[in-house]
Design goal:
The protein has 224 residues and is mostly helical. The chain has one domain (2-222). The chain has helices at 16-22, 29-48, 52-67, 78-86, 94-106, 112-131, 138-153, 159-172, 185-200, 210-222; strands at residues 2-3, 109-110. Helix 2 packs antiparallel against helix 6 (112-131) and helix 5 (94-106) packs antiparallel against helix 6 (112-131). It is globular and about 45 Å long. The chain starts with a strand and ends with a helix.
Length: 224
């Protein structure tokens, strides 16, 4: 069991990786960008919250925004407005993402069970939202969970937690994936990247190193 993570500032905003992946989403690019922006906003919330109760209240506000059928709550908040304009509010998995982030916000210490719950919520929820399917196949959910653990490992200040996240990601990654629908190309690229890095013991980088940009291009073009 390790202390709850200190999340690095690199998780604020819309990360370059998310921007590049969304560019491969075709007509769904705007919606996928706002899904990523929603995750980035929750990451910022987790990074800037030092008291669990306040963090829960801020996350509850996002739950209320998603549940607000009137479309009035949160007007003027840039991510909220973008989500409504792009139809992202109707995407599955958004509440699960909040539940996953709550593990990092509310738990003073995180054990393996906490890491699994975080990964299932944030990663599984985000991959469902990006794929825009309520009943996602098991291999896609597991791919999302492994991504969330790989990403966490690259953005926390606790080396023990990062190592535990990488070990769990290696365990969770599915043996086989696909077939990939055309609209899931960004997820195919990301899953391939995560599989390569987790197998090699490489955590998610902060920012967009040139080597990572070239790897993404290669994966997009040749699939590996």
């Amino acid at each position: 069991m390790v202390k709850a993570p200190i999340i690095a500032p690199g998780m604020d905003g819309l990360p370059p990786l998310s921007q590049l992946l969304s560019a491969h989403a075709g007509a769904d690019a705007a919606r996928q960008r706002t899904v990523w922006a929603f995750d980035a906003r929750l990451a910022h919330l987790a990074r800037t919250t030092s008291e669990a109760m306040i963090g829960r209240m801020r996350l509850a506000w996002w739950n209320d925004v998603i549940d607000d059928a009137s479309g009035l709550k949160g007007q003027g908040e840039p991510v909220v407005d973008a989500m409504r304009a792009s139809g992202t509010m109707a995407s599955p998995g958004l509440v699960a993402m909040i539940d996953g982030w709550e593990i990092l916000v509310a738990e003073p210490e995180i054990d393996t069970t906490g890491l699994r719950d975080y990964a299932l919520g944030r990663g599984g929820g985000l991959f469902r939202a990006l794929a825009n399917v309520e009943d996602a196949p098991d291999w896609l959910m597991r791919s999302g969970q492994a991504w969330a653990l790989w990403d966490l490992a690259g953005h926390v200040g606790d080396d023990a937690l990062a190592q535990a996240a990488m070990e769990l990601a290696r365990e969770i990654l599915p043996d086989a994936v696909g077939p990939w629908p055309r609209g899931w190309k960004p997820l195919r690229i990301l899953t391939t990247l995560v599989r390569q890095d987790v197998s090699a013991g490489h955590r998610a980088p902060v920012g967009m190193p040139r080597a990572l940009a070239w790897r993404l291009l290669r994966i997009a073009l040749v699939g590996r």
